[in-house]
Design brief:
CATH topology of chain A: Helix Hairpins
Oligomer: heterodimer
Largest sheet of chain B: none
Radius of gyration of chain B: 20 Å
Helix content of chain B: over 70%
Helix content of chain A: over 70%
CATH architecture of the largest domain in chain B: Up-down Bundle
Number of helices of chain B: 6
Structural class of chain A: mainly alpha
CATH class of chain A: Mainly Alpha
CATH superfamily of the largest domain in chain B: NADH-ubiquinone/plastoquinone oxidoreductase chain 6, subunit NuoJ
Order of helices and strands of chain B: HHHHHH
Shape of chain A: elongated
Number of domains of chain B: 2
Shape of chain B: globular
Radius of gyration of chain A: 17 Å
CATH topology of the largest domain in chain B: Four Helix Bundle (Hemerythrin (Met), subunit A)
Largest sheet of chain A: none
Chain lengths: ~100, ~160
Amino acid sequence: MLLNEFLLLGAALFAIGVYGVLARRNGVMVLMSIELILNAVNINLVAFGAAHGTVAGQIFALFVITVAAAEVGVGLAIVIMLYRNRASIDFDEVDALKG
Amino acid sequence: MVAQHIAFGVIAATVIVGALRVVTTGNVVHAALWLVGVLAGVGASFLLLGAEFVGVTQILVYIGAIIVLFLFGIMLTRAPIGHELRLTSTNWGVALVVALAIAGVLGYTLIDAFGSGKLPGDTRQLTASVGDTLFQSYLVPFEVVSVLLLAALVGAIVLARKD
C-alpha cells in the first residue's frame, strides 16, 4: 500500500468539507461539513502513524475524535439557541454584526 | 496486497461519493445518512491501516453518538424533512473555487513530497500497545481532554437550558 493513497483520500475529504462549510447555509449542515474535515485529519494522523510505525498517530486521532464530540455538543447547543431566538438556523440571515 | 488495493478502492469510492452527497444533497436527513456512510468508510480505512482501536472507536463514537446528536439537532430545529432548496448559499461558486484550489495545492504537495512512499507490509498496532502508550506517555493530555469533555457537556447544558 502506498502512503499517498491515504493522504490523497484525506486531502479530497478535506477539500469537500471546506466546500460544505463555505457553501452551506443551514447550521446543522455546516457542522456536518466540519465533521468531514476532522475525519480527513484523522486519516492523515493514522496513516502517518502507520508509516512511521508508532502509535502516537492513533493517540492523536483519539484526541481529535474526543474534541470533535465536544465540538458537536456545543455547536448544536449554539444552533438550537439560534433557532430559539430567531426561529431560523439560516447562517445567511445571522448578520446582526454587519456594519 | 491486491485484496488491500481493492478494499482501498471500494473504501475511497464510498467516502468520496458519500462526502459529495453530504455537501450537495437538498435534504438534511439524507445528508446525515450519507454522513454515516462516510464515517463508516473512514473507520474501514483505519482498520485497513491496522489501527483496530481507532477504527472501533470511530464506529462507536461517530456513528453511535454523533450522528444521533445530529438527528436530534435536525428534529429540534424543525428543519423541513422533505426536499428543501435553500440549503446551499448563492455564493457556492466561490466556495467551489476555494475547495478546488485547496485540493490542487494539497494534492500537488502530497504527490511531490510522498510520491512513492510505501507503507510497511504489516502496519498492525494492537490495542494493548495503544493503551500502554496512552496511559504512560500521554496521561496528562488524556486527563486534560476528559476535563475538556466535561466542560463541553456543562457548556452545552447551560446553553440549551430553557429559563
